[in-house]
Amino acid sequence: MAPLKRAQLRALTFKDGEVAGVPKGDLAVQDPQPKEERRSFPPVSDPTCQTMRDIRNGEGASTVVLQVFNWKGDIWGGGSMLAAYEGGKAKQAFTQLKQALDSCRSYQGTGWEGKFKVTLTMEQAPDVGDEAVRFHETVPRRPGGPGDRNEQFTVVRAGNTIATFQKLNVGGSATFPPDLVSRQVERLQNAQRL
Question: What's the whole-model pTM score?
Answer without folding.
Answer: 0.93
